[in-house]
Write a structure and sequence with these properties.
single chain, 240 residues, alpha+beta, Phosphatase 2c, domain 1, 6-stranded antiparallel beta sheet, 5-stranded antiparallel beta sheet, 7 helices, 33% helix, 29% strand
Length: 240
């Protein structure tokens, strides 16, 4: 697995409340991005705790049970955030998104809550593997707005669910058979709020196989900065 990370607080935030994970435990490759939210320091605390929970979880090498294990670690992390908020007013209403993928025996197992994203770039096409759990995406699904309006919508950061904010989570799970030369992109909305999907697809179409994985991640991140850099930017590019 060849991978590269771009991690930047952006142009308008004082600190980076995103966190991420790239790890290999036994034969399981783990990739995750979390985008924290909340009051003073609470956002960065939330994302860090959730990523640490994923990192420290002992996943069994049993593909039949991986989805259940992903859901267990997500639910446990969310309950921990809620408990911390109940015990300390400084952490009240802190929460985080989480998009996590486990690669095991040429399959990608996904667990997702919030509006960070996981993409698959295959055969020159960019495929979004996750659903944004946001108010704006609900409006888009209900055909009340179009894609252009969704991209520019002033309420695009309002989430329908996030770890730490919902007692009952509707975790999105997917299982994808991976192929040689597949490229995976995990990112917070600091990238996708600044760079449209079609721009990401065009960039990868022109540069994948030409530029190194490191340059792909750096150039994508700098594109988000150049377009405004309104939020923390975290992205992980993974070549199978």
């Amino acid at each position: 697995m060849n991978s590269s990370v771009y991690y930047n607080k952006g142009k308008k935030r004082e600190k980076n409340e995103d966190d991420y994970l790239l790890a290999i435990k036994d034969d399981i490759k783990i990739i995750a991005v979390a985008d924290g939210m909340g009051g003073h320091k609470a956002g960065e605390v939330a994302s860090r705790i959730v990523i640490e929970n994923v990192k420290n979880y002992d996943f069994e090498k049993n593909k039949e049970n991986i989805a259940n294990e992903i859901n267990e670690v997500i639910n446990n992390a969310s309950k921990k955030l809620i408990e911390m908020g109940n015990n300390n007013k400084e952490y009240n209403n802190m929460g985080t998104t989480l998009s996590v993928g486990l690669i095991f025996k040429n399959k990608l197992f996904i667990g997702h809550v919030g509006d960070s994203r996981i993409y698959l770039f295959r055969n020159n096409k960019l495929n979004l593997l996750t659903t944004d759990h946001s108010l704006v995406n609900k409006l888009l699904e209900d055909k009340k707005i179009n894609a252009e309006q969704a991209f520019k919508h002033p309420q695009k950061h309002i989430l329908i669910q996030a770890l730490g904010l919902n007692k009952e989570l509707q975790i999105e799970n997917r299982e994808i058979e991976l192929m040689s030369e597949d490229l995976l992109l995990f990112c917070s909305d600091g990238l996708t709020d600044m760079v449209k999907d079609e721009e990401i697809e065009c960039f990868l179409d022109n540069n994948y196989g030409v530029e190194s994985i490191e340059k792909l991640s750096q150039k994508l991140g700098k594109k988000a900065l150049a377009n405004g850099g309104n939020d923390n930017i975290t992205l992980i590019v993974v070549k199978l």
